[in-house]
Specification:
Helix content is about 35%, strand content about 25%.
Length: about 230
């Protein structure tokens, strides 16, 4: 298999809903959260290089608290993050795209991603030019109008919950970043949003593993339980 894809793992967040700590450094089943994503990407034959986006003070914290670093965990390179998530992602993509055909961006706060699902996103990306991990919506959706009263039931057909990794050809992803004007368009919530703005339509790829984002302490307990019961492949 050709190792034509670079991976960017974004781990420069502040974890405001997790008590103001970088989630990548949190303990999950006895290991730093970041270790899970790096391990999953490193197990993929299609991945040629991995960069972790993490600020220097968090790298120092990881060394102090865990006696390890992103490179010791398996990353090839670390780069500093930016003031916003999309800037951190851009920093990583710009640092690693050279020499690879494709690039994937993944949030370290999604530690349960499996290597099989990563390869599925890569396969779809090769076929369609860009692809994202996602989950079809199963819940009934309600819309309110400025308060907590229901005003409308939203048809969930064809609606998906976006996840990561999200990827595209390197030149396409770089174009998406360079074309985004945050002052005029606001902050992009993910790479797909920027790809859509330049006329690309990422393929949606459903994951076989749970791939939820850890946003609260409760999510950490759920992820740990899934790992301990062997539900993650």
């Amino acid at each position: 298999m050709v190792s034509d894809t670079a991976a960017v793992i974004v781990a420069a967040g502040q974890g405001r809903r997790m008590g103001g700590t970088n989630k990548a450094l949190m303990r999950l089943n006895g290991q730093p959260l970041l270790a899970y994503s790096i391990r999953a990407f490193r197990a993929c034959a299609s991945i040629g290089r991995i960069v972790v986006v993490m600020n220097d003070y968090d790298i120092k914290r990881m060394q102090a608290e865990w006696s390890t670093s992103p490179t010791h965990l398996g990353a090839d390179l670390t780069v500093a993050g930016g003031s916003e998530r999309w800037i951190s992602s851009r920093n990583g993509v710009e640092a690693i795209c050279d020499g690879h055909d494709y690039v994937l961006v993944h949030d370290a706060a999604r530690p349960l991603i499996g290597s099989t699902d990563i390869e599925s996103v890569i396969s779809s990306m090769r076929q369609h030019g860009c692809a994202i991990a996602a989950e079809p919506l199963a819940d009934t959706l309600k819309q309110s109008c400025g308060d907590t009263r229901v005003t409308l039931t939203v048809d969930r057909q064809d609606l998906w919950r976006a996840q990561t990794p999200q990827g595209a050809k390197c030149e396409t992803m770089l174009e998406a970043f360079s074309s985004w004007d945050a002052k005029a368009m606001g902050l992009p919530t993910d790479e797909s949003m920027m790809l859509e703005k330049i006329g690309r339509h990422p393929e949606l790829v459903a994951c076989s593993n749970p791939n939820f984002k850890l946003t609260s302490p409760r999510d950490l307990y759920v992820a740990e339980a899934l790992l301990q019961c062997g539900s993650i492949s």
